[in-house]
From TrEMBL:
Organism: Acacia crassicarpa (northern wattle)
Any one cellular-component term (Gene Ontology): nucleolus
PANTHER family attached to this UniProt entry: MRNA TURNOVER PROTEIN 4 HOMOLOG, MRNA TURNOVER PROTEIN 4 MRTO4
Protein name, entry field: Ribosome assembly factor mrt4
UniProt keyword annotation of Transferase present: no
Amino acid sequence: MPKSKRNKTVTLSKTKKKGREHKEAIVNAIKETAEKFSSVFVFSFENMRNKKFKEFREQLKSTSRFFLGSNKVMQVALGHSAADEIRPGLHKVSKLLRGDAGMVFTNLPKEEVERLFNQFEEYDYARTGSTATEKVELKEGPLEQFTHEMEPLLRKQGMPVRLNKGVVELVSDFVVCEEGKPLSPEASRILRLLGIQMATFKLHLICRWGPDDFELYMQGPDDSDVETN
């Protein structure tokens, strides 16, 4: 008997891929924004946390506009060379949009932007695959920070634990993670349970462009072709 088409499962989570129209909208938005603001900064980021970044962006909403996404799309908008740049000197900014980077157009004074970016630092729990910043080792004995209900969960993470008169106890020393090595999913969960935060969300300024000047803050091995004046 043929299968009824009425019973066909429909996935509602499918989303439409961002196509040409979306990219063109971003390019046009960047071009319009470049005409409205006095300067633009390129920045890099590490250990991105979307919620924290949104809060930082909201803080500057009245004076600035951020763009974070496809570097290639942003490069097209700014121009790849002096021949197709949208304002004089912006092709230098385009060349520095690489890796985990974004840009912010702003009317704030240069010193204020530098202060805000240099002061921004948020600590959070490290994710699976992140590099451990220190060695964490738990010694044999009672783990009084955990309730007895958590014993099965800890055991599931590979910890050699048991219940001793209602108290969670390590039956031997246990290394959660080693400094400089990637965190396993289990190590990441244990660190969260222990309240140990190893990830630091930071923003680093790379360059600044203004109508009359260009300044490089961080120079990498591939930036030798970027003119600074």
